[in-house]
Design a protein that fits this description.
Number of helices: 19
Helix content: 40-55%
Strand content: 15-25%
Radius of gyration: 32 Å
Shape: elongated
CATH topology of one domain: Nucleotidyltransferase, domain 5
Oligomer: single chain
Strand order of the largest sheet: 4-3-2-5-6-12-9-8-7
Distance between the termini: 13 Å
Largest sheet: 9 strands, mixed
């Protein structure tokens, strides 16, 4: 017998009993039968044809294996229902307690949660419909699960699947056969069917949750690359939203609905200006092959940030049948409110917000909505104080130097230094009158005075511009407030699902990496949307922490007959985990127990 490496041992499991095989006369035919069963079961083409008797038996036994596998996985496929497992007949064994061991404990809860969300979204069927075979579908689901539960590189995902997770067992694949190279290929394959997958998820979530896509939120963000990315057509230096101006960027544009589900995504070069992307993206949604289905005759409303609300974009939206609501790029001058007393509401943190419609019309007859936020007022006042303190500190330092020996006192030099100080502190400098006293071409003193401001402070005040003419203040604010959903989407993609940074060298792999995070986000959004309806507002990382308390435990023991009994059984969910399962209508366990008996050697 071949000697095994330390820590390795043989495991034996009976998966099929083929009987005495009286139809086959020789051992050669029996070996051919075993090989042919494996070929049929794994969809591997045969190099040499088998005889009629071998082929007939192989087809029969392969079908039995598939039926058995389907019956084992059937509980996994049906998400929802929350059926209770019924206990089977009592089974008693005389066990040597000293032989009881737990050779393996794998994380199960988060993987089982994501597995049921994938079944709810019919993701496996969508992959099959796009010509992926059984092994490719299993690997794709495992990889998406990995991105949702344990986001990392392909190398880290491979180690996690092999050593820590029960994701492969849930999806019916062997963790030893999942290499990082197969994960690379799987991600590229998923990116190759990006359009059909996004359309499927959009249509399925609309059907499950009865959504109409009448309100769309559009925004873009960017993420950075590690490495020089020479020769890339997408990576470019630009304005990083993550303050990584030292790295090349890639831009991701997203369209989501009011509930936070992604409707469409597109990649742009890293130095692409925000406002130049809107018309192309929204045009694709309404083009000859529309991405989104119709809305029953209702006009779609697009919620935008100020970066996109140029006059050219506003006109394009109006001409193409969209309504819109956006932060106005310019504040109206000498405005008056339609009502003397603004409407007061509170945000999620109970901070007061004043709302009021403006009498004066915006260009194209649009409406302005006046907004004054208490929290924004405090923030802007604090920023002004900090900027003013920094400006005064630099002016004090320069002024103090005029009375010291050995410092520059030439008027031209001091004037230039004052200019540089005001340029660095533009936010505060326009509130000050700064003057330099001089004598015989030398600066003698530096004085400044804060200008008096008359009238009501503009801190915390901004305006929304909208084409919606028949909505009141509260409704307009509620519609625009959905822009917080896309901010949360980017936050989950970048932080919880580790879309950033990107380490891949070529553009296609980089985009496939980001698209994998978008697919995982579809499952995350499906879970969190249903939990929010039930009053559970945990973030995704907190949900993962709770779910990871449920493990898949493998226990081995010896009985009095010398047999080794191996039991694989999920641990009981904690109260927090049960609450999540019950809120979603998901099953608590993928299976009750699996038992294997190994005969005495």
């Amino acid at each position: 017998m071949r000697e095994l490496p330390p820590g390795r041992k043989y495991a034996h499991r009976n998966i099929l009993n083929v009987g005495k095989l009286t139809e086959l006369a020789t051992d050669v035919e029996r070996r051919q039968l075993a090989d042919r069963i494996e070929q049929i079961y794994s969809n591997t083409p045969a190099l040499f044809p088998a005889g009629p008797a071998v082929e007939k038996l192989a087809q029969h036994f392969a079908a039995l294996l598939r039926n058995r596998k389907a019956s084992e996985n059937e509980p996994q496929a049906a998400a929802g229902g929350g059926q209770k497992e019924t206990a089977g007949p009592a089974a008693f064994e005389n066990i040597d307690l000293d032989s009881v061991k737990h050779p393996e404990a794998r994380e199960l809860g988060a993987e089982w949660l994501v597995r049921q969300a994938a079944a709810q979204l019919q993701l496996a069927q969508a992959l099959k419909d796009n010509n992926l075979n059984v092994q490719q579908v299993q690997l794709a689901l495992v990889q998406i699960t990995g991105r949702a539960v344990y986001p990392g590189s392909e190398r880290k995902t491979q180690s996690w699947l092999r050593d820590n997770s029960a994701a492969c067992q849930l999806h019916g694949t062997d963790p030893a056969k999942v290499s990082r190279y197969r994960l690379y290929e799987s991600a590229l394959g998923l990116y190759g069917i990006k359009g059909p997958l996004e359309a499927h998820l959009s249509k399925t979530t609309n059907g499950i949750f009865n959504l109409g896509d009448t309100l769309l939120v559009y925004d873009i963000s960017n993420t950075y690359f590690e490495g020089r990315k020479e020769g890339s057509g997408m990576a470019a230096f630009g304005r990083s939203k993550e303050k990584r101006s030292d790295c090349k960027l890639i831009v991701l544009a997203l369209v989501i609905n009011a509930e936070g589900f992604v409707k469409y995504s597109k990649f742009y070069k890293g130095n692409t200006a925000d406002c130049t992307t809107l018309q192309q993206i929204m045009g694709l949604l309404r083009g000859p092959a529309p991405v989104l289905p119709g809305t029953g005759g209702q006009k779609q409303i697009v919620a935008l940030d100020a970066a996109f609300s140029t006059e050219d974009n506003i006109k394009w939206l109006r001409d193409n049948g969209y309504d819109y609501i956006s932060v106005s790029r310019a504040k109206p001058k000498d405005y008056t409110l339609a009502c003397t007393d603004p409407v007061t509401i509170t945000d999620n943190r109970q901070h007061p917000i004043e709302l009021g419609l403006v009498r004066e019309a915006a260009p194209n007859g649009d409406k302005y909505l006046y907004i004054r936020s208490h929290l924004k007022t405090v923030k802007e006042e604090s920023m002004d104080k900090r900027a003013a303190a920094k400006l005064e500190e630099e002016l004090n330092s320069l002024g103090a130097g005029l009375s010291k020996k050995g410092t520059t006192k030439k008027l031209d030099s001091i004037t230039k230094r004052v200019g540089r100080i005001t340029e660095r502190n533009k936010a505060a400098a326009h509130f000050y009158d700064i003057s330099v006293q001089q004598k015989d071409g030398l600066a003698t003193a530096l004085t400044w005075q804060r200008k008096e401001t008359h009238g009501k402070s503009s801190h915390g005040i901004y305006f929304l511009r909208t084409s919606l003419q028949d909505r009141d203040e509260k409704t307009l604010w509620k519609i625009y407030n959905t822009t917080t959903e896309i901010e949360a989407t980017f936050r989950i993609l970048k932080t919880d699902l580790e879309m950033r940074p990107v380490f891949h060298k070529n553009d296609k792999s980089s985009e496939a990496h980001i698209f994998l995070a978008i697919l995982a986000y579809g499952l995350v959004a499906t879970i969190r949307h249903q939990l929010k309806i039930k009053g559970i507002h945990d973030d995704w990382r907190e949900i993962i922490r709770k779910m990871n308390t449920q493990k898949l435990i493998t226990t081995s023991m010896k009985n009095d007959k010398g047999q080794t009994i191996i039991i694989q059984q999920p641990s009981e969910p904690t109260a927090d985990v049960k609450e999540i399962y019950d809120a979603l209508g998901y099953k608590h366990k993928p299976w009750a127990r699996k038992k294997f008996v190994l005969p005495e050697l």
